[in-house]
Amino acid sequence: MPRRSIRFRFLAWFGFLLAALIVGFGITTYHLQRNATLDRIDAELERQVDLLSVAFRGGDVGAHFPDGDRELRGRLRGELSPEPPLGPPPGLSGPLPGVPPAPEAPARRTVRLPASVTNQFAATNRNLFAIWSAENVLLARSSAKAQTLPRPQGAGAETRIFHRIRGTWREAYHFTERRDCVLVGRDVAAELASLRHYAWMLALIGACILALGLGVGFLFSSLFVRSIGDMCRAAQRISEGNLSERISAADMDRELGQLADVLNATFARLDAAFSRQRQFTADAAHELRTPLAVIITDAQTALRRERSLAEYRDTILACEEAAQQMRRLTESLLELARLDEGGPQGARIATDLAELARAQMERLAGAAAARQVELRAELQPAILSCHPEQIGLVFANLIANAIEYNKPGGTVRVSTRVEAQDVVAVVADSGRGIAPEDLPRIFDRFFRTSQTRASADGHNGLGLAICKSIMHAHGGQIEVASQVDQGSTFTLRWPQEQANR
């Protein structure tokens, strides 16, 4: 399985987290079991330390043991008889004549413990006890094993019971008020072996759970990766040219279904873009084919036989008009290509739309007079941060169309203004209008209405498409409202924040 695959990373992280949980749970469980075992042993050792301590000190055992130990208390009271300390023989006082005084040695006491206490340690080799005096003299022990027991270190004036572990021995001890030390030990090798066995059982169970979890994770990751694989195969088929195919998201989980929906939407936009591109190419070829056919036909006609000078002149004029039509189409296509790439670069200039509109109206005043169309200006200052040559092209196309498709004696009204939230420019005419079925496609490239197609006026259907692309590049919108035989109104709108950039 490749390391960079989703399945490998998923299983690696899942296995790591599962292993961490299992190890944490196992360690916690083991320590709880170990503490419970040691607590049970310590409780027993503490009871034995109490027995030894009371028996050693000869105190009132009734105050130290529960009612179930009445017989033991009675025996302890009668059997405690510590021997007198060592000293000179009776009747003698002071040092013997001629004998140097012996160095002082720690007093040694003889301790006789009740059989009921010592029998508890003599019955098994797993228990031992030892008693030391404050001077580190071993006063009593259970067996030879206790002979080499190290005496615990004193803990100040503490008389509570302490615990220690030494090899396989667990020991409890405490110091009396006279700093004598009473220690009880027990061999816990069997308990430690049981704990080791318990630890191995936990490890085995954890390994089985980890293996089972990884197996289940592998199955789930297989289902997850299979869905991704289906998406990849569908995307591969789409990339090979089948743009109409889509990814089925019916059986996918919510997240993968959302991804499939996003990819399907992307593929749909690509399909539409490719369709537009094919249509654009076909329309461009069609538009270029007509002037090319005119040029070729006129040239071939002129070359078949000798022509008069006037006929040659007419042929050349026809070829020039077709070439001019091709030039206009080529310039429009180049302009659209630049707009599709983001338009002209560089800083925009704060420009008054009223001045741009007025300049275009003055340039087209002759064409308006020739068609008996009146131009009316309602221009208020409206500052826009833009590329003036492009916005001027928008006004030129809209005003030229308003003149071209107007009625004799009609009017074209151009206005600019600043509203509360927007900068607005309007070009309205009283011409033929646009049919309702043509309005949704009026800004499509190479689209021409039935009236413009019938007129065969040489327009290529790119003017409004260029206007829309320029408006989009400047963050604005272009809208159209029209009624047949009553005229059309084109509204240009830029938000204030966009206008001031």
Structure description:
This protein is an alpha+beta fold and 501 residues long. It has twelve helices and twelve strands. It has helices at 6-57, 70-79, 115-122, 189-239, 254-304, 309-340, 353-363, 365-370, 388-404, 450-455, 463-473, 496-499; strands spanning 127-132, 138-141, 162-166, 169-175, 181-187, 349-352, 374-379, 383-386, 411-418, 422-429, 477-483, 487-495. The strands form three sheets. It has a five-stranded antiparallel beta sheet with strand order 2-1-5-4-3. Strand 4 and strand 5 (181-187) form a beta hairpin. The radius of gyration is 54 Å and the shape is rod-shaped.
Features:
501 residues; alpha+beta; five-stranded antiparallel beta sheet; five-stranded mixed beta sheet; 12 helices; 12 strands; rod-shaped
The main pleated sheet reads as: 5 strands, antiparallel
Number of helices: 12
Outline type: rod-shaped
Strand adjacency order, main sheet: 2-1-5-4-3
Q: Over the alpha carbons, how many angstroms does the gyration radius reach?
A: 54 Å
Name the helix and strand elements from N-terminus to C-terminus, one letter apiece: HHHEEEEEHHHEHHEEHEEHHEEH
Report, as a whole number of angstroms, the end-to-end distance.
Answer: 54 Å
Average pLDDT taken over every residue: 80
Record the SSE blueprint.
Elements: H1 6-57, H2 70-79, H3 115-122, E1 127-132, E2 138-141, E3 162-166, E4 169-175, E5 181-187, H4 189-239, H5 254-304, H6 309-340, E6 349-352, H7 353-363, H8 365-370, E7 374-379, E8 383-386, H9 388-404, E9 411-418, E10 422-429, H10 450-455, H11 463-473, E11 477-483, E12 487-495, H12 496-499
Parallel strand pairs: 7-9
Antiparallel strand pairs: 1-2, 1-5, 3-4, 4-5, 6-8, 9-10, 10-12, 11-12
